[in-house]
Amino acid sequence: MTSRDIAYHRLSNQQIASAKPKTPNELVASLGAMQAQDYLGALWAIGLRSMNSNEADIEKAIGARTIIRTWPMRGTLHFVAPADVRWMLELLTPAVIAASKRRQQQLELDDKTFARCRALFTKVLQGDKQLTRDAMYSSLQHAHISTSSQRGYHILWRLAQEGIICFGARAGKQPTFALLDEWARPTKKLKREEALAELTKRYFSGHGPATLQDFAWWSGLKISEAKAGLEMIESSLRKEADGTKVYWMSTESTSSPADTPIACLLPGFDEYMLGYNDRSAVLDPRHAQKLIPDNNGRFLSTMVMNGRVVGTWKRTVKKKRVHMVMEPFSSLNKAAKQAFAGAAERYGKFIGLPVHL
After folding, report:
1. Among 21, 74, 43, 79, which residue's Cα sits nearest to residue 268?
2. Residue 17 confidence (pLDDT) above 90
3. Contacts from 316-322 at CB under 8 Å and sequence distance 24+?
4. What is the DSSP letter of 298?
5. Ramachandran angles phi, psi of 68, nearest 5°
6. For residue range 189-204, what is the model confidence (pLDDT) as tens digits?
7. Residue boundaries of the structural domains of the chain
8. How confident is the model at residue 258 (pLDDT cuts 50, 70, 90)?
9. Does the model's pTM come out above 0.85?
10. Is residue 2 within 8 Å of residue 244, measured between CB atoms?
């Protein structure tokens, strides 16, 4: 496979170049999970992959509990489908929790404290209540459980990974928390082998072509565990190589270059970038640092042309319009400029404001 082949297949399998009128639940489930550190960016990540949707539609889906935001893998926020949230947490979070033990000891968060927090949150959230982060912290403080020095964040993070709480719908611009058992219906429990096989299948179907190393990075699994998952479903996947790397994807994966430029404006933490350990197939390594200029782990939004990252973009939302600045890595031709202008117009329709470039 060439880098061009990989890029076009990923555009298709991630449903960026082939957006369909899918529900947010169907879309998130098909990719397995979608990065959601940047809340508004994550709404757009779903919107750009589904035809005729807008920001309000995605928020309604969250409020209707058809997609859930929590920490299912790598200690990082993602959107997942309700039917998947429990088996993903059970499969992927124990290793993350174990790796955080030293930090929790530094914060004097022991098993007894976490037990008190579980009981407290179960009580204050019971009856379908949703509380903001500040309200959650207040309940801890009233119970004489300190939230200082990031203790509050680590308590929420830990209990979400244990499947006690998850994010609810926003209250204004503030995120809220709810009990997972009230936010997602009980589902059939999967054995570890079943969960591993299902996660592997979702990843390579929704992210392929990808390598074993890419899957291990995305999931946070040990390479041996990722390999075991791949071996379980290997017969259902298509295998390709570029001479040095082996790529896997669904046998149904098809893609061909478009006759017209495919221009996309992706949010900063999009699966198209963070879904892989090796991004060189779609991003020239010379430009990689431009996506995280402050070395703070925050990825800038990207301009993607025919699957290749060709620049970054920023937005400033005003009362009556959104101002957008595009910064391509090199000069764009007329066709590319027109294609990105169309992509910007689509983004404006998604958030309900005209765009000024």
Report:
1. 43
2. no
3. 317/351, 317/353, 318/353, 320/353, 320/354, 321/353, 321/354, 321/355, 321/356, 322/347, 322/348, 322/351, 322/353, 322/354, 322/355, 322/356
4. P
5. -125, 140
6. 999 999 999 999 999 9
7. 263-356
8. low
9. yes
10. no
